[in-house]
Design a protein that fits this description.
The chain is of the alpha+beta class and about 250 residues long. Helices cover about 60% and strands about 15% of the residues. The protein has 8 helices and 7 strands, in the order H-H-H-H-H-H-H-H-E-E-E-E-E-E-E. The chain has helices at about 1-30, 35-45, 55-65, 70-85, 90-100, 110-120, 125-150, 155-185; strands at about 190, 195-200, 210-215, 220-225, 230, 240, 245-250. The protein has a 5-stranded antiparallel sheet with strand order 6-5-4-1-7. It has a two-stranded antiparallel ribbon with strand order 2-3. Helix 2 (about 35-45) packs antiparallel against helix 3 and helix 7 packs antiparallel against helix 8.
Amino acid sequence: MKYRLITIALLLLALPTLGQTAFEEGISAYSEARFSDAISAFEQAIDSSDKPTAAMYYNLGNAYYKSDELASAILAYERAYRLAPADRDIRYNLDLATSKTEDKITPAPTALLSGWVDGISHWFNLHTWVTLDIILLLLTCGLVLLYFFSGKRALRLTGFYAAIVTALLFIFTNAMTFRLNRFIQDPSGAVIMSPIVTIKSSPDQSATDIVVLHAGVRVQVQKAVASFYEVSLPDGVVGWIPQSDLEFILPR
């Protein structure tokens, strides 16, 4: 029994190494243009890792893109983007892959505004925003103390106006932190994986057709009924799609 336990423990310790080895094999296969082998290796690295990294998903997306599997590439890029929203390379490749899908959907005005705010929140990663929150909060508290306890009028005025500025900046960075965290944790984002799918007016195959879409379109899942999901498209259209036709960005 003791030897068996030791063996199990050694295997558990080796898991990260196995994941890293698979990742390196994927990099090697990709550099040699063996994209199917690279896909298998990167997927193995992801499956064997407790916390897959943005680099794993990013390179998987690159391998899928080179294999002309746009929907799978977009899904992998979206997952990488969730883990590293401030990475410009990931964002560029995601936009590039999305631009090559068959459906060109113009976002609704509200979606454009939301995307603009998201773009600001993606300037930094979550850790950086939290750090800025803490620094600005401490600065604001220090400046308030300066205002109340300084014996010099000039210092009190400086503390007062500077505290207002840092407080406003704190509100801004805190809002960006909240926005980015909500983006990272959002469970509703999904990508259509089937080559072609018809969005229905109700959760029934015999329901009225609303629009025909192709693989790679990103949607937001609203709710599930039977074997259908109610989804909203970037342009605001809402309809129903079979659950088997899409895959969630946040792995389940």
